[in-house]
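Lab notebook, bench 4. Still working through the backlog of constructs that have no structural model yet. Next entry is a single chain of 78 residues. Request: give me the structure tokens for it.
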Amino acid sequence: MGKLVTTPWDPTLVAVALGDIARAKGMTQVAREAGLGRESLYKALSPGGNPEFATIMKVVSVLGLRLHASPASAKSVA
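Model written out:
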């Protein structure tokens, strides 16, 4: 796999990380539980993918995870 070049706020990092976790759990099972197609989920959670927010939230839920948002400090906002 090629090197993934991103910025600190790049949403690709979230999708790729979820893809790694989903593959570890079993993409077929994750896709089934999320109500998504396995191949489309592989594509969405790959470095070149562009998943909808609803897809991210379904996968997060199936994996038993939570996303947390907190205020950014004035220094870290670009």
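Notes after review: Helices lie at 12-25, 27-34, 38-44, 53-62. The chain has four helices and no strands. Flag for follow-up if needed.
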